[in-house]
Amino acid sequence: MKKKFALSFVALASVALLAACGEVKSGASNAAGNSVEEKTIKIGFNFEETGAVAAYGTSEQKGAQLAVDEINAAGGIDGKQIEVVDKDNKSETAEAASVTTNLVTQSKVSAIVGPATSGATAAAVANATKAGVPLISPSATQDGLTKGQDYLFIGTFQDSFQGKIIANYVTDKLQAKKVVLYTDNASDYAKDIAKAFREAYKGEIVADETFVAGDTDFQAALTKMKGKDFDAIVVPGYYTEAGKIVNQARGMGIDKPIVGGDGFNGEEFVQQATAEKASNIYFISGFSTTVEVSAKAKAFLDAYRAKYNEEPSTFAALAYDSVHLVANAAKGAKNSGEIKDNLAKTKDFEGVTGQTSFDADHNTVKTAYMMTMNNGKVEAAEVVKP
Predict the structure, then answer these.
(1) 293 vs 96, residue with greater confidence
(2) Selection from 57, 268, 294, 152 nearest residue 302 by Cα
(3) pLDDT tens digits for 147-200?
(4) What is the pLDDT of residue 157?
């Protein structure tokens, strides 16, 4: 997923066309990269731990740290312990780039996990590439983000994938022949989902309205919508605004289904909407605790709950898997360039969010779920396809 200025979900937050002769869009790379140390393997965290989308970054930091703790407790990688260098990019694209520079030049990390959002990931990857250090974003979702980027890997599905899923779901499951589309016009993440939705939806869009990230009063637009004949509201955006939209819509008596992407993920959405009004809500997730999960996913759930005394979000699960992907690729690697090469060869890696294989562009297609929320609680999760 990606954020307007940088997720949620939602980035998500995600890669690249292999470049010829070592030359990539962001500049020439140091093919060997940083050396793997004798006793430790350094991994950098570049997450949105404070700022506007801290809900995504803090969840990912927790999931990633849990994975590191478990790997180290099990003996590490080739007998080497993972040493984490954890940096906060403050939900700012410029800071994400600066953090990357610090991680690869000062700390000499061999791989980077994060950022969570697409904008921050796009800002960070150039400096990682120049140093020959692979960067995996658990949740950057922007289509085309990876073009020409040999050192970028994405751990989740892309925005167009979400737009198509929403179009099919509102048509087939919600029987919505007419919808209102209400999009965050400041977010590439939201605009890409909206674009894919418009192209895939066969019904009528009776109103195509926009808001801007940071808005808090949606009464005027919702009043216009209330006078329309429609079956559902589709809101491509992030929890920061989507939760408020739900709260105000329900407060005005608009009770139609409200549908969104993975940017709705997290308790913060419910806090904004309030549990009382967060009903008849549907949103996409890459991970679910409400459906039957694998033994590996159950172990993750139990460990996460025990460590943090809370439920893991899809962002925590994706970051957990991202660290394990890096750890798997670091086996036998002497430098960060070899870790990158091993990541690119990943096929059918079994994680808590399902199987991961990277294609030639370092993108992955993962299982997606449509979550049903009532009274602020997810009641059901259904596997969905575009």
Answers:
(1) 96
(2) 294
(3) 889 999 999 988 899 999 999 999 999 999 999 999 999 988 899 999 999 999
(4) 87
Q: Which fold, 40-157+293-367?
A: Rossmann fold (3.40.50)
Render pLDDT for 253-268 as a digit per residue (tens, 0 to 9): 999 999 999 999 878 8
pLDDT of residue 8: 37
Range scoring the smallest mean pLDDT among 59-68, 139-148, 325-334, 364-373: 364-373
List the structure tokens of 25: 């869009």
Q: How far apart are CA 256 and CA 246, in angstroms?
A: 10
Going from the C-alpha of 124 to that of each of 80, 85, 113, 319, 328, the distances in angstroms are 27, 16, 11, 17, 23
This prediction has a pTM of: 0.79
With beta carbons less than 8 A apart as the criterion, state whether 112 and 139 touch. no
Computed on alpha carbons and rounded to an integer, the radius of gyration of the chain in Å comes to 20
pLDDT at 7 over 60: no
Task: For residue 369, report the phi and psi dihedrals to the nearest 5 degrees.
Answer: -125, 145
Token reading at 125: 């990857």
Annotated domain spans of the chain: 40-157+293-367, 159-285
CATH number, span 159-285 = 3.40.50.2300
